[in-house]
Design a protein that fits this description.
Mean pLDDT: 90
Low-confidence stretches: none
Number of domains: 3
Radius of gyration: 30 Å
CATH topology of the largest domain: D-Maltodextrin-Binding Protein, domain 2
CATH class of the largest domain: Alpha Beta
Structural class: alpha/beta
Largest sheet: 5 strands, mixed
Number of helices: 10
Distance between the termini: 64 Å
Oligomer: single chain
Strand content: 15-25%
Helix content: 40-55%
Number of strands: 12
CATH architecture of the largest domain: 3-Layer(aba) Sandwich
CATH superfamily of the largest domain: Periplasmic binding protein-like II
Length: 290
């Protein structure tokens, strides 16, 4: 396969072919006429084909040049469109909210249509914190923790309690917390408080709080539990949908409060999207709605 020529050579050829003039191409690309001519000659040498007929007072494309031009223009068009798609919608254009994927699916998704219907002209992007880098550009951020992050104003979105969740068939054989010793515990990584905290509150002494399987999202833990793979420990903001659907049930009547929660973070300094305040107010309203 032939090596692709340098982009600068192709750019010089495309401009010269469009104008049929090295001089006008040079003016457009802010180069000298000699530089354009040299780059086109280098391209022709690279391709082993003449792209132009150089006449005393005009420039004419050869048959090969005329056939190559639309290919080059199509490539530039695709590159422009791709660059715009990935990098064009920055903070000044698209309002970007970053959130943990479990919270986005279990809490935001069911409420979001109301915001979209009320504000159809607000360009919105929601990205998962699993896939974005720490220095990625976003206007608002949702994080799980105690509410203290340097450089951000934090507003609490959830007030969490945690309790075991499982299939009804598994719940039927669980009469007391110690019965969990015979079940697989499903853990979600990243939480300060987990099975050890709940089991202590339940007064259990026979269950190994560290046993079982570990996952990096509640989505996976709930899905495994819903397929009979064990008993998950769900937080109230994340488990509401699973409980409402009946896929999972509460085998015990003990819900233990936790000290951490989901918080909405707004940067204290720097540029922010003009619609960020609108989304922030809506999220806080949803957090306190019955």
């Amino acid at each position: 396969m032939a090596h692709l020529p340098p982009l600068s050579w192709l750019r010089a050829f495309e401009a010269a072919a469009r104008h049929l003039s090295f001089t006008q191409a040079a003016e457009e690309l802010l180069l000298t006429q000699a530089a354009i001519s040299k780059q086109v000659k280098l391209l022709e040498h690279h391709l082993h084909e003449a792209l132009f007929e150089r006449r005393p007072r005009s420039l004419v494309l050869t048959k090969v040049g005329a056939a190559y031009l639309p290919k080059v223009q199509d490539a530039f068009d695709r590159l422009t469109a791709g660059t715009q798609e990935v990098f064009g919608n920055r903070r000044t254009q698209v309002l970007t909210l970053r959130a943990p994927i479990g919270f986005a699916v279990n809490w935001i998704a069911s409420r979001l249509p109301r915001f979209l219907d009320a504000h159809p002209k607000v360009p919105l992007r929601i990205v998962s914190s699993i896939w974005t880098e720490e220095d990625a550009q976003y206007d608002l951020d949702i994080r799980y923790g105690t509410g203290h992050w340097t450089g951000f104003r934090s507003d609490q979105l959830s007030w969490e309690v945690m309790e075991p969740l499982c299939l009804p068939t598994i719940a039927a054989r669980l009469k007391a917390a110690d019965d969990l010793a015979s079940e697989r515990l499903l853990h979600v990584l990243g939480y300060k408080e987990g099975w050890g905290t709940w089991l202590a509150a339940a007064g259990s002494s026979k269950v190994n709080a560290g046993s079982g399987a570990h996952f990096d999202t509640s989505l996976m833990a709930f899905e495994v539990a819903a397929n009979g793979g064990g008993v998950a420990l769900g937080r109230s903001s994340m488990a509401a949908h699973e409980l409402a659907s009946g896929r999972l049930v509460r085998p015990f009547g003990l819900a233990v409060p936790v000290s951490e929660a989901f918080y909405l973070l707004t940067p204290e300094t720097g540029q922010i999207h003009p619609d960020a305040a609108l989304l922030r107010a809506w999220l806080l309203e949803q957090a306190t709605a019955p």
